[in-house]
Amino acid sequence: MKETRLKILQYVSGIAIFIVAGFHILYSHFLKEDVTEWNSIADRAADNWWLAFYVLLLIFGLYHGLHGLRTIILEYFSISNSTVKVLDYVFIIAGLAILGYGTYIPVEAL
Amino acid sequence: MQDLNFKVQRYNPDKDNSPHMQEFTVPFKKGMSVLDGLLYIKENLDNTLAFRSSCRMGICGSCGMLINNLPRLACHTPVEELETYKIEVKSLPNYPIIKDLVPKIDVLFEKHKSVKPYLIREDNENLERPETELYQSVEQLDSFMQFSYCIKCGLCMSACPTVATDRLFLGPQPLAQGYRYCADSRDEAGKERFEIVDTPHGIWLCHMAGACSEACPKGLDPAFAIQLFKRMLVSQSLGIRKQPKSAPAIQPPKTSKPKIAVPELTVK
Amino acid sequence: MQAINSKNRNLPNNLGIKGWVWAGRYTWERYLYTLHRLTGLGLLLFITIHLGINGTRIWGASSWEDAMDILETPAFKVGEYLVVAAFIFHALNGGRLILQHMAYTLGKPKAPIYPYVDAMRQNRLLMWAVLFVIVVLAIFALVLFVI
Predict the structure, then answer these.
(1) Cα B135 versus chain centre, distance
(2) Model-level pTM?
(3) B97 near B104, Cβ under 8 Å?
(4) How many whole angstroms separate alpha carbon B214 and alpha carbon B206?
């Protein structure tokens, strides 16, 4: 039932992104004035709650997006069932790498 | 009424590299279908035109073709319904073309077989040589009856966007028939079919474009069957599925109803 | 039964990726599927650009300011609005898809009596409601962007 479990996570992450990214867009575009100022971002990066918020958004976004991309690649290239495992590992490694990069930047650039 | 202009796709594997269109003029008769037009062409204009047809009444599923950009049964498409004098007939998409308008639909039957479209019970002996009946209430029958009307015409597979690119995808027809057997209370092999359908090229590549239901000539609604199947799979995966009781085997009634008094008509 | 022509000259006839985009006269849901896929890919592209631009922080304040200046160009402003519109569409259409994939709004199986109305067509009202909300929110976002 592996594919079903992956799809359930896709639905759950979709709803989670709607809430978290919805808040992120509203806050960044409409609620806060100088959101792209260096100091403003530095303040948020130093705050643990904001950091957790951004990392959570990245996790959900990466899972949802990479699973969608996996579906499109499976469909277009008709990857055989045995090669799908290799594709899955590629996606897991790429996802973890981007997650690491995305977490490293705000922590290190203070 | 004006004569009809038929543009028919031609492909001869011995001579052509790619298909081309050929135009014919067919006289209009009230109530005629596209199949009538093709038969007129074959009988009077060009007898090398190849196409499949059999029952000419929309029940055998042989004459599936792409008519004016929608997959339809040629016998089931009245010319007046198309509301135009120009009729374009091509071979059913997403199947290889053998000749002219004849698609090779073996892949549909293989995928259908792979989903085990038959009743499976623990006591197979009873299914082979039945001595008892399997009880099923009217509500249980209604929950899957709609999906048992499939005539295996293959139009849904032509309409599906996923089948267009992915040759390994099961397709709307096998998935809908898989649900028809999983939802049947007489069947006990639901879990086997879950394993067949829950694969990388299985049910989850269906994105509910709904084109299959649009194309189905028997009102089967395969898209609906597939979504019900997805609900079954998700509830099974989350562990919240109510395990259905299998249909019990009951003895047939011992007394038969009294026969109507019909006079003996055979000559002795 | 083997085909008579053993060289197998059957002509492949798959619609391919064109079958995703346009395959004939179909209904709204068929093309909403295509748009959902396009917006999804667009949002994925946006995430990579967004991470790349935010990654310039690691090289200090001056490279960050340069990146922010690029973002002020008109092309990027239009792109920003498109991302917001794509997000609104993908999220709300995705909500409709989740409901329908779990067969919640599709009703019960019933005997097919001509003229056939499939469950997706019965759900047309839900689709129009979702599209209406999407358009309203997209116009609202456009107004807020322009102001």
Answers:
(1) 27
(2) 0.89
(3) yes
(4) 15
